[in-house]
Amino acid sequence: MFFPSHRFVSGDPAPLPSPPPPPAEERSPSVSAVEAILKYRFKEPKLLAEALTHSSFPDAPSYERLEFVGDSVLELAISNHLFLAHPGLDQGQLSNLRSVNVSTEKLARVAVRHGMYRFLRHNVQSMDDKVREFARAVEEEDDTVAHGGSVKAPKVLADIVESVAAAIYIDVDFDLKRLWVIFRGLLEPIVGPEELQQQPQPITMLFEVCQKQGKKLEIRQGKKGSTNIASVYVDGEFVASCSSEHKEIAKLNAARRSLSQLAQSKPIKCGMIEIDGFDGPFEIEGAKQKLHELCDKKKWPKPIYRKGESGPPHNKKFACTVQIATSDGVYTMEGETRSRVKDAENCAASLMCRALHQYNYL
Known about the structure:
Layout: H1 29-38, H2 45-51, H3 64-85, H4 91-101, H5 104-113, H6 125-140, H7 155-171, H8 176-187, H9 193-198, H10 202-212, E1 217-224, E2 227-234, E3 237-244, H11 247-263, H12 287-298, E4 304-310, E5 317-326, E6 329-334, H13 341-358
Antiparallel strand pairs: 1-2, 2-3, 4-5, 5-6
Helix pairs in contact: 2-7, 3-4, 3-7, 5-7, 10-11, 12-13
Protein backbone atom coordinates (compact mmCIF):
# COMPACT_ATOMS: atom_id res chain seq x y z
CA MET A 1 0.00 0.00 0.00
CA PHE A 2 1.30 3.43 -0.87
CA PHE A 3 1.56 6.03 1.90
CA PRO A 4 2.22 9.59 0.71
CA SER A 5 4.94 11.43 2.56
CA HIS A 6 3.56 13.78 5.22
CA ARG A 7 4.09 17.50 4.83
CA PHE A 8 3.23 20.16 7.43
CA VAL A 9 0.55 22.46 6.13
CA SER A 10 -1.52 25.14 7.73
CA GLY A 11 -3.42 23.68 10.65
CA ASP A 12 -0.94 20.87 11.34
CA PRO A 13 0.36 20.63 14.97
CA ALA A 14 3.81 22.17 15.60
CA PRO A 15 6.73 19.79 16.24
CA LEU A 16 7.46 19.01 19.87
CA PRO A 17 10.09 21.34 21.38
CA SER A 18 13.40 19.96 22.72
CA PRO A 19 13.29 19.17 26.44
CA PRO A 20 14.63 22.03 28.59
CA PRO A 21 18.08 21.56 30.12
CA PRO A 22 18.05 20.21 33.66
CA PRO A 23 18.02 22.95 36.28
CA ALA A 24 21.32 23.89 37.80
CA GLU A 25 22.01 22.00 40.99
CA GLU A 26 20.95 24.02 43.99
CA ARG A 27 23.68 25.23 46.30
CA SER A 28 23.31 25.15 50.04
CA PRO A 29 24.21 28.34 51.93
CA SER A 30 27.33 26.59 53.26
CA VAL A 31 28.51 25.67 49.79
CA SER A 32 27.96 29.23 48.54
CA ALA A 33 29.76 30.67 51.56
CA VAL A 34 32.84 28.46 51.06
CA GLU A 35 32.84 29.25 47.33
CA ALA A 36 33.01 32.92 48.30
CA ILE A 37 36.01 32.20 50.56
CA LEU A 38 37.72 30.31 47.73
CA LYS A 39 36.68 32.82 45.06
CA TYR A 40 35.80 29.82 42.92
CA ARG A 41 32.41 28.54 41.72
CA PHE A 42 32.13 24.78 41.41
CA LYS A 43 30.81 23.11 38.27
CA GLU A 44 29.77 20.24 40.56
CA PRO A 45 28.75 21.81 43.88
CA LYS A 46 27.98 18.38 45.30
CA LEU A 47 31.76 17.84 45.49
CA LEU A 48 32.10 20.75 47.89
CA ALA A 49 29.03 19.61 49.84
CA GLU A 50 30.72 16.23 50.29
CA ALA A 51 33.95 17.91 51.40
CA LEU A 52 31.95 19.68 54.11
CA THR A 53 30.29 16.53 55.48
CA HIS A 54 31.66 14.58 58.46
CA SER A 55 31.12 10.84 58.77
CA SER A 56 28.82 11.45 61.76
CA PHE A 57 26.25 13.19 59.53
CA PRO A 58 23.54 10.71 58.45
CA ASP A 59 22.44 9.82 54.93
CA ALA A 60 25.18 11.70 53.11
CA PRO A 61 28.64 10.74 51.80
CA SER A 62 31.42 11.99 54.07
CA TYR A 63 34.65 13.73 53.14
CA GLU A 64 36.83 10.68 53.88
CA ARG A 65 37.45 9.71 50.23
CA LEU A 66 38.20 13.32 49.31
CA GLU A 67 40.54 13.66 52.28
CA PHE A 68 42.50 10.68 50.94
CA VAL A 69 43.08 12.52 47.65
CA GLY A 70 43.58 15.95 49.22
CA ASP A 71 46.37 14.78 51.49
CA SER A 72 48.51 13.70 48.53
CA VAL A 73 47.48 16.55 46.24
CA LEU A 74 48.47 19.25 48.73
CA GLU A 75 51.83 17.57 49.34
CA LEU A 76 52.52 17.52 45.59
CA ALA A 77 51.33 21.10 45.06
CA ILE A 78 53.47 22.40 47.93
CA SER A 79 56.43 20.33 46.73
CA ASN A 80 56.20 21.88 43.27
CA HIS A 81 55.96 25.38 44.72
CA LEU A 82 58.93 24.96 47.05
CA PHE A 83 61.05 23.30 44.35
CA LEU A 84 60.52 26.24 41.98
CA ALA A 85 60.60 29.01 44.60
CA HIS A 86 63.81 27.89 46.35
CA PRO A 87 66.27 26.45 43.81
CA GLY A 88 69.16 26.69 46.27
CA LEU A 89 67.67 24.36 48.91
CA ASP A 90 68.68 20.72 49.20
CA GLN A 91 66.36 17.74 49.63
CA GLY A 92 66.44 17.84 53.44
CA GLN A 93 65.61 21.54 53.61
CA LEU A 94 62.77 21.15 51.11
CA SER A 95 61.39 18.20 53.09
CA ASN A 96 61.40 20.23 56.31
CA LEU A 97 59.57 23.10 54.63
CA ARG A 98 57.00 20.79 53.09
CA SER A 99 56.36 19.09 56.44
CA VAL A 100 55.64 22.42 58.12
CA ASN A 101 53.37 23.64 55.31
CA VAL A 102 51.16 20.54 55.16
CA SER A 103 51.21 19.63 58.85
CA THR A 104 48.01 19.17 60.83
CA GLU A 105 48.98 22.27 62.82
CA LYS A 106 49.36 24.45 59.72
CA LEU A 107 46.20 23.24 57.96
CA ALA A 108 44.12 23.47 61.15
CA ARG A 109 45.16 27.11 61.50
CA VAL A 110 44.16 27.70 57.88
CA ALA A 111 40.69 26.36 58.69
CA VAL A 112 40.46 28.60 61.77
CA ARG A 113 41.67 31.69 59.89
CA HIS A 114 38.96 31.31 57.25
CA GLY A 115 36.23 30.08 59.60
CA MET A 116 35.65 26.90 57.61
CA TYR A 117 34.58 24.67 60.48
CA ARG A 118 31.24 26.43 60.89
CA PHE A 119 30.18 25.08 57.48
CA LEU A 120 30.87 21.43 58.37
CA ARG A 121 27.84 19.14 58.66
CA HIS A 122 28.31 16.83 61.64
CA ASN A 123 26.71 15.45 64.80
CA VAL A 124 29.56 15.42 67.34
CA GLN A 125 29.19 17.94 70.14
CA SER A 126 32.56 17.15 71.71
CA MET A 127 34.25 18.07 68.43
CA ASP A 128 32.78 21.56 68.67
CA ASP A 129 34.32 22.02 72.11
CA LYS A 130 37.80 20.96 70.97
CA VAL A 131 37.70 23.21 67.91
CA ARG A 132 36.49 26.13 70.00
CA GLU A 133 39.32 25.63 72.50
CA PHE A 134 41.92 25.47 69.74
CA ALA A 135 40.53 28.53 67.93
CA ARG A 136 40.57 30.52 71.18
CA ALA A 137 44.21 29.57 71.81
CA VAL A 138 45.17 30.61 68.26
CA GLU A 139 43.46 33.98 68.67
CA GLU A 140 45.39 34.69 71.86
CA GLU A 141 48.79 34.13 70.23
CA ASP A 142 50.78 37.18 69.19
CA ASP A 143 52.43 35.43 66.24
CA THR A 144 51.87 32.39 64.08
CA VAL A 145 53.19 29.21 65.70
CA ALA A 146 54.73 26.75 63.28
CA HIS A 147 55.26 23.75 65.53
CA GLY A 148 52.27 23.54 67.84
CA GLY A 149 50.84 25.89 70.42
CA SER A 150 49.34 25.34 73.85
CA VAL A 151 46.38 23.34 72.48
CA LYS A 152 46.64 20.37 70.12
CA ALA A 153 45.22 21.08 66.67
CA PRO A 154 42.05 19.00 66.05
CA LYS A 155 42.61 16.76 63.04
CA VAL A 156 39.11 17.46 61.73
CA LEU A 157 40.19 21.03 60.85
CA ALA A 158 43.06 19.79 58.69
CA ASP A 159 40.73 17.18 57.17
CA ILE A 160 38.36 19.92 55.97
CA VAL A 161 41.16 21.80 54.23
CA GLU A 162 42.46 18.64 52.54
CA SER A 163 38.96 17.62 51.45
CA VAL A 164 38.14 21.02 49.98
CA ALA A 165 41.44 20.95 48.08
CA ALA A 166 40.52 17.54 46.64
CA ALA A 167 37.05 18.77 45.68
CA ILE A 168 38.60 21.64 43.70
CA TYR A 169 41.17 19.32 42.12
CA ILE A 170 38.46 16.99 40.84
CA ASP A 171 36.21 19.88 39.75
CA VAL A 172 39.02 21.35 37.59
CA ASP A 173 39.53 17.98 35.91
CA PHE A 174 42.60 17.03 37.96
CA ASP A 175 44.57 20.09 36.81
CA LEU A 176 47.21 20.64 39.52
CA LYS A 177 48.19 24.09 38.23
CA ARG A 178 44.60 25.35 38.36
CA LEU A 179 44.18 23.91 41.85
CA TRP A 180 47.26 25.80 43.02
CA VAL A 181 46.07 29.09 41.50
CA ILE A 182 42.73 28.73 43.31
CA PHE A 183 43.99 27.30 46.60
CA ARG A 184 47.30 29.04 47.22
CA GLY A 185 45.74 32.16 48.74
CA LEU A 186 44.01 30.03 51.35
CA LEU A 187 47.36 28.65 52.55
CA GLU A 188 49.12 31.99 52.87
CA PRO A 189 51.44 32.78 54.51
CA ILE A 190 53.43 29.86 53.13
CA VAL A 191 56.38 29.10 55.40
CA GLY A 192 59.72 29.67 53.68
CA PRO A 193 63.31 29.07 54.83
CA GLU A 194 63.53 32.46 56.58
CA GLU A 195 60.35 31.90 58.58
CA LEU A 196 61.42 28.38 59.48
CA GLN A 197 64.76 29.71 60.70
CA GLN A 198 62.95 32.27 62.84
CA GLN A 199 60.79 29.56 64.41
CA PRO A 200 62.99 26.49 64.79
CA GLN A 201 61.43 23.33 66.10
CA PRO A 202 61.81 23.54 69.93
CA ILE A 203 62.95 19.94 70.35
CA THR A 204 65.47 20.24 67.52
CA MET A 205 66.66 23.54 68.95
CA LEU A 206 67.10 22.00 72.41
CA PHE A 207 69.21 19.19 70.95
CA GLU A 208 71.38 21.71 69.09
CA VAL A 209 71.91 23.85 72.22
CA CYS A 210 72.95 20.79 74.25
CA GLN A 211 75.19 19.53 71.46
CA LYS A 212 77.02 22.88 71.25
CA GLN A 213 77.60 22.79 75.00
CA GLY A 214 78.75 19.16 74.90
CA LYS A 215 75.86 17.99 77.07
CA LYS A 216 73.70 14.89 76.85
CA LEU A 217 69.97 15.47 76.39
CA GLU A 218 67.29 12.99 77.38
CA ILE A 219 63.52 13.43 77.10
CA ARG A 220 61.58 10.91 79.17
CA GLN A 221 57.87 10.41 78.62
CA GLY A 222 55.28 8.73 80.79
CA LYS A 223 51.62 8.79 81.73
CA LYS A 224 49.60 9.44 84.85
CA GLY A 225 46.09 8.30 84.10
CA SER A 226 45.11 9.98 80.84
CA THR A 227 47.74 12.71 81.24
CA ASN A 228 51.00 12.56 79.29
CA ILE A 229 54.14 13.82 81.04
CA ALA A 230 57.39 14.79 79.31
CA SER A 231 60.51 15.44 81.39
CA VAL A 232 63.82 16.83 80.15
CA TYR A 233 67.18 15.81 81.65
CA VAL A 234 70.53 17.33 80.71
CA ASP A 235 73.60 15.36 81.73
CA GLY A 236 71.33 13.29 83.95
CA GLU A 237 69.96 16.31 85.85
CA PHE A 238 66.29 17.26 85.75
CA VAL A 239 65.59 20.54 83.91
CA ALA A 240 61.84 20.81 83.30
CA SER A 241 58.66 18.86 82.67
CA CYS A 242 55.23 19.52 81.18
CA SER A 243 51.99 17.58 81.04
CA SER A 244 49.16 17.51 78.55
CA GLU A 245 46.39 15.27 77.32
CA HIS A 246 48.45 14.96 74.17
CA LYS A 247 51.90 13.41 74.03
CA GLU A 248 53.23 15.77 71.34
CA ILE A 249 52.13 18.93 73.16
CA ALA A 250 53.70 17.74 76.42
CA LYS A 251 57.00 17.09 74.65
CA LEU A 252 57.00 20.41 72.77
CA ASN A 253 56.18 22.44 75.88
CA ALA A 254 58.79 20.59 77.94
CA ALA A 255 61.37 21.50 75.30
CA ARG A 256 60.27 25.15 75.31
CA ARG A 257 60.38 25.34 79.10
CA SER A 258 63.79 23.68 79.16
CA LEU A 259 65.19 26.22 76.69
CA SER A 260 63.96 28.97 78.99
CA GLN A 261 65.36 27.24 82.08
CA LEU A 262 68.75 26.70 80.48
CA ALA A 263 68.82 30.36 79.50
CA GLN A 264 68.55 31.33 83.16
CA SER A 265 72.04 29.93 83.72
CA LYS A 266 73.48 32.45 81.27
CA PRO A 267 75.10 35.54 82.85
CA ILE A 268 72.22 37.90 82.08
CA LYS A 269 70.29 39.55 84.89
CA CYS A 270 66.60 40.27 84.74
CA GLY A 271 64.95 43.39 86.05
CA MET A 272 65.94 47.06 85.98
CA ILE A 273 69.51 47.41 84.79
CA GLU A 274 71.70 50.26 83.64
CA ILE A 275 74.72 49.52 81.48
CA ASP A 276 77.70 51.83 81.22
CA GLY A 277 78.32 53.16 77.75
CA PHE A 278 74.75 52.66 76.52
CA ASP A 279 73.37 56.15 76.16
CA GLY A 280 69.74 57.12 76.51
CA PRO A 281 66.86 56.35 78.87
CA PHE A 282 66.08 52.88 80.16
CA GLU A 283 63.04 52.51 77.87
CA ILE A 284 64.26 52.32 74.28
CA GLU A 285 61.76 53.69 71.78
CA GLY A 286 60.87 51.04 69.21
CA ALA A 287 62.89 48.40 71.10
CA LYS A 288 60.74 45.55 69.79
CA GLN A 289 61.39 46.52 66.19
CA LYS A 290 65.11 47.03 66.87
CA LEU A 291 65.27 43.54 68.35
CA HIS A 292 63.60 42.03 65.29
CA GLU A 293 66.02 43.85 63.00
CA LEU A 294 68.98 42.59 65.02
CA CYS A 295 67.76 39.00 64.78
CA ASP A 296 67.31 39.34 61.02
CA LYS A 297 70.83 40.73 60.70
CA LYS A 298 72.36 37.99 62.83
CA LYS A 299 70.24 35.24 61.20
CA TRP A 300 68.79 34.32 64.61
CA PRO A 301 65.22 33.11 65.15
CA LYS A 302 62.84 35.97 65.74
CA PRO A 303 62.18 36.93 69.38
CA ILE A 304 59.45 35.02 71.19
CA TYR A 305 57.24 37.06 73.52
CA ARG A 306 55.13 35.58 76.29
CA LYS A 307 52.53 37.57 78.16
CA GLY A 308 51.38 37.37 81.76
CA GLU A 309 48.59 39.41 83.33
CA SER A 310 47.44 40.30 86.80
CA GLY A 311 44.98 42.55 88.60
CA PRO A 312 41.20 43.00 88.41
CA PRO A 313 39.42 43.22 85.03
CA HIS A 314 39.10 47.01 85.26
CA ASN A 315 42.79 47.51 86.04
CA LYS A 316 44.76 44.81 84.24
CA LYS A 317 48.54 44.80 84.42
CA PHE A 318 50.78 42.99 81.94
CA ALA A 319 54.32 41.67 82.16
CA CYS A 320 56.15 40.14 79.22
CA THR A 321 59.19 37.95 78.79
CA VAL A 322 61.19 37.88 75.58
CA GLN A 323 63.34 34.97 74.49
CA ILE A 324 66.08 34.94 71.86
CA ALA A 325 68.14 32.03 70.60
CA THR A 326 71.60 33.35 69.76
CA SER A 327 74.53 31.44 68.34
CA ASP A 328 75.77 30.95 71.93
CA GLY A 329 72.56 29.88 73.60
CA VAL A 330 69.06 30.98 74.51
CA TYR A 331 68.53 34.23 76.43
CA THR A 332 65.39 35.22 78.32
CA MET A 333 64.52 38.61 79.80
CA GLU A 334 61.48 39.57 81.86
CA GLY A 335 60.18 43.13 81.82
CA GLU A 336 58.27 45.10 84.43
CA THR A 337 54.49 45.33 84.58
CA ARG A 338 52.73 47.84 82.37
CA SER A 339 49.11 48.78 81.76
CA ARG A 340 49.31 47.87 78.06
CA VAL A 341 50.67 44.73 76.40
CA LYS A 342 52.51 46.82 73.82
CA ASP A 343 54.35 48.74 76.55
CA ALA A 344 55.14 45.54 78.46
CA GLU A 345 56.69 44.03 75.34
CA ASN A 346 58.74 47.17 74.74
CA CYS A 347 60.00 47.06 78.32
CA ALA A 348 61.18 43.45 77.94
CA ALA A 349 62.67 44.24 74.53
CA SER A 350 64.53 47.24 76.01
CA LEU A 351 66.07 45.03 78.67
CA MET A 352 67.10 42.49 76.06
CA CYS A 353 68.68 45.16 73.85
CA ARG A 354 70.70 46.46 76.79
CA ALA A 355 71.78 42.96 77.82
CA LEU A 356 72.86 42.11 74.28
CA HIS A 357 74.79 45.38 74.15
CA GLN A 358 76.56 44.47 77.38
CA TYR A 359 77.65 41.15 75.90
CA ASN A 360 78.85 42.75 72.67
CA TYR A 361 76.11 41.52 70.37
CA LEU A 362 75.23 45.12 69.37
